[in-house]
Amino acid sequence: MGCILIGKKDLSDKEADLIREIFRETGSLDYSIRKCQEQVDKAKIALRKLANKNDSDAFHFLIGIADYMIIRSL
Q1: d(CA 20, CA 56)
Q2: SS3 track for 16-74
Q3: Under a CB-based contact definition with an 8 Å cutoff, are residues 39 and 67 in contact?
Q4: Dihedral over alpha carbons 54, 58, 59, 63 (to 10 degrees)
Q5: What is the pLDDT of residues 35-51, one digit of tens each?
């Protein structure tokens, strides 16, 4: 049932909860979080290489956005 719901324009809250549960039960959510963390780690390395001063406001702002991508909730 879950695959027929993905992309549905008038998805109900109950249907969205069902899809989220499927993602959790199948391990897809954990896998996605791990892959996202890998990409965020790469982004942070690139930012550190580009930053003239790691204590700049812009650097900390971008690092904060990268970290937020991992900690935000579904």
Answers
A1: 38
A2: HHHHHHHHHHHCHHHHHHHHHHHHHHHHHHHHHHHCCCCCCHHHHHHHHHHHHHHHCCC
A3: no
A4: 150
A5: 989 999 998 888 888 77
Residue 14 structure tokens: 């109950």
Position 59, amino acid: F
Burial of 43 (0-12, 13-18, 19+ CB in 10 A): middle
Residues 8/62, Cβ–Cβ less than 8 Å: no
Q: Give pTM, 2 decimals.
A: 0.64
- Rounded to 5 degrees, φ, ψ at 20 are -60, -40
